[in-house]
Amino acid sequence: MPKSSVVPIFDGHNDTLLHLAIKRPGSEEDFLTGREGHIDLPKAKAGGLAGGLFAMFVPSKNWDKKFYWREKGPEGPVKKKGWDVPIAGKVTQPAALNATMAMMAALLRLQKLSKGKLKVVTTHRQLTSAMDRGVLAAVMHIEGVEAIKQDLDTLGVLYEAGLRSLGPVWSRPNAFGHGVPFNFPDTPDIGPGLTSAGKDLVRLSNELGVMVDLSHLNERGFWDVVSLSRAPIVASHSGVWKLCRSTRNLTDDQLRAIGDSGGIVGVNFARAFLRKDGLEDKRTTVKEIVKHVQYIAEKIGVDHVGLGSDFDGTKVPQDMGDASGLPKLIDALKTAGIRGAALKKVAHGNWLRVLKETWSR
């Protein structure tokens, strides 16, 4: 890694491409000079963001993430106060593929426009080389594989185009499995597991060397992947259920399975997935992220925890703000006693190890 006072960070998840290609098509040049949002090249350089999984997520038409508070049920006040978000509608395979192609194209345009400052990487050697040279290393990731046909021919083509990571589902059901709705408090044990097509997807991903990400997958689907996969088990942007009882977070049993496989949890920065009360409170600080990192490190070892910000896809702690504020998190980790070799593992080392093992299979 380059010599710098800023600790290099590999981030397990961002939604930046959604904004560049779908919400503001053709805005790649803003990424190079500065844009509203969590990530651009100046912010990445200032914060030490050296690489990450760049997600390609296809939004459901007319869906908005609105939190509905539980107040009264058919028989009076509800027993579990909290909130729910309606499940997003399905997207068709042709529409999802078109949107995914648009985001892949945007990332490739970024690579060209950056003139060597950003590189799409497909091997561990390319990844470490880019990070060593101070080049932002981008890994193509699909979040919810509606773009892939059930016969999986699409997956082979996308792999050749540079895809190296995928999450079978986002928080809606598809032909491959069932995602968890955004509920609090609730458990991730909601709905059935992987379909037969989903199980084939995991097997072929293993064969190709594509990482399978279990963030957003429900608990039964999680255990299906654990039983099938020969690669490390990964949740790219999740948290600890014991600390925040959101459906999006992982139980202790799930954490142990990830550790036993040699995998990793990328801790999500979303305020509502960090706090004990499940609120998107503006007063949330990076100390809440540190609590999740510490819990995972103590439960399954520091070799199995990293960062998975969800930048440009959620509301992060106010004292961080955006990618330029990552050093504040690093300082908070140091204050909590995570220093030296352990800090490097959390910041980037564990991600590089897991990707190397997955891609080399």
Characterize the structure shown.
It is a single chain. This protein is α/β, with parallel strands linked by helices and 361 residues long. It has a single domain (9-359), classed as TIM Barrel, CATH 3.20.20.140. The protein is 37% helix and 15% strand. It has helices spanning 16-23, 28-33, 41-47, 93-113, 124-132, 153-160, 196-208, 219-228, 252-260, 287-300, 326-335, 340-359, and strands at residues 9-14, 49-57, 68-69, 72-73, 76-77, 83-84, 118-120, 136-143, 163-167, 183-184, 211-212, 234-238, 264-267, 305-307. Strands 1, 2, 7, 8, 9 and 11 form a six-stranded parallel β-sheet that branches. A three-stranded antiparallel β-sheet has the order 3-6-10, with no helix packed on it. It has a three-stranded parallel β-sheet with strand order 12-13-14. Helix 1 packs across helix 4. The radius of gyration is 19 Å and the shape is globular. The two termini are 25 Å apart. The mean pLDDT is 95.
What's the quick description here?
37% of the residues lie in helices and 15% in strands. With 361 residues, the chain is of the alpha/beta class. Strands 1, 2, 7, 8, 9 and 11 form a 6-stranded parallel sheet that branches. A 3-stranded antiparallel sheet has the order 3-6-10, with no helix packed on it.
